[in-house]
Amino acid sequence: MIFGQDRSELRKMYADAWHKHCVQMPMSPLEAQIAAVVAAHPEYHAAVRGDLEADFTVAGGVANPFLHMGLHMSIREQVAVDRPAGISSIFVQLSARLADAHAAEHRMLDCLAETLWEAQRRQGPPDEAAYLERLRAL
Residue 93: CB partners within 8 Å, gap ≥ 6? Predict the structure, then answer.
């Protein structure tokens, strides 16, 4: 597991990676990946620099920037290792069709979020076949 289970620890990793990026400090490969995701989301820079204990709830009408960026990290890892099998080619095709890899990730992370939500609701593992079906439909 990359980050562990602690929300504060996870958010601190994002803040630390972003800080290192901003002041041009050396970064680990993971920190560089995190900083790249944060850089692609200027709308979340204040959250990464702000109160890392803030709550983001649907009821509060504020999207959770750390969840969003975490989904990007997940998609990038899945594509890098082609797991589930076939996701890399789906990403390449979608990126070419949209002419924008970041936009392709956004479309794909909606599928991932839905798959994870369903798994949580059923209290079981994510349905890989359903996930790939959603991705192929893009």
Answer: none
